[in-house]
Design a protein that fits this description.
single chain, 365 residues, alpha/beta, Aldehyde Dehydrogenase, Chain A, domain 1, Aldehyde Dehydrogenase, Chain A, domain 2, 2 domains, 7-stranded mixed sheet, 6-stranded mixed sheet, 17% strand, globular, disordered N terminus
Length: 365
Amino acid sequence: WRSISCFRLLASLPYMSIVGQIVPWNFPFLMAAWKLAPVLASGCCTVLKPSKTTSLSVLYFADLIKDVLPPGVFNVITGAGSKAGQYMLDHKGFCKLAFTGSTEVGLSVAKAAAEKLIPATLELGGKSANIFFADCNLEQAYDGAQLGILFNQGQVCCAGSRIFVQEDIYDEFVAELAKRFNKVKIGLPWKEDTQLGATIYKAQLDKVLSYVELAKEEGATIACGGEQATDGALKNGIFMKPTLITNATNDMRVAREEIFGPVAVVIKFKTEEEVIKMANDSDYGLGGAVWTQDINRAFRVASSIETGRVWVNTYNQIPEGSPFGGYKQSGIGRETHKVILEHYTQMKNILINLSGQPSGFYSQK
């Protein structure tokens, strides 16, 4: 898996067998496994590039399996996306591209694939709707709202970053959720009692903080958090306090753009029809959830939301074998399900004449 020889192997392997794959920094080890599985199942080989900020996880993954796979099947290169990543997009030896990451970069991957007339699967950004109806189990709902946006410090593409709350329970819900956000244990990642760790790097923290300021400029209110955590051992780190933005509307930038941090906007709604319309009024469609004790309502809303995955009375549960992928700007294709093999294979038709006789169309008599 050494990068020095990765692209040399492209010239020696059969055509239509090599896939170029790029994975992000937020789940590097997991994403590498997700990407490798269909490669092996379909009999392909891959050159995979991790994010420059989390390369060690993928290199360790490659080291774990180096004696399991034949040489040349799984190859890892490292480097900046603007250099190593672009080299992959420009290379003519790939038969398919696969990418997980931002929508902005995903568009570049799609363009590179289109210019070569090769397929691409893309798992991109999100601004998922986490919808709470008045009849929901509140204790279950508070837990689900936190899991939806605080899991992995909110650095999750399918994070429930738009929290829609029915007006009958809005005030109670926001007050209690803010109280619980303030009690979340922010700490060092190796501490057993830590519930929320650090953001990936300072530039990302600065981006998250800039969205808090933007929310204020747009007329929203910061119900809790909204600033960097600097107490005790955290003072030299890059920790963001869990943040709820209230008095928000669905047309605000903080409700439309992916923040990628432990920050959620809370939006009030009246009716089922209204919240479906607002949930779908987004460029993204990756995840989402419905919280209600009415199973008919759950099915109606879940079926109506334009998104690749909808949880009911839970969030961020990702069982093996369930398809994962998005609508609209959230990408193309579904991973972690057998349907992904359709993107790593091509259908061929072979027709055999077993009669021993000519077709008869041009037969001479």
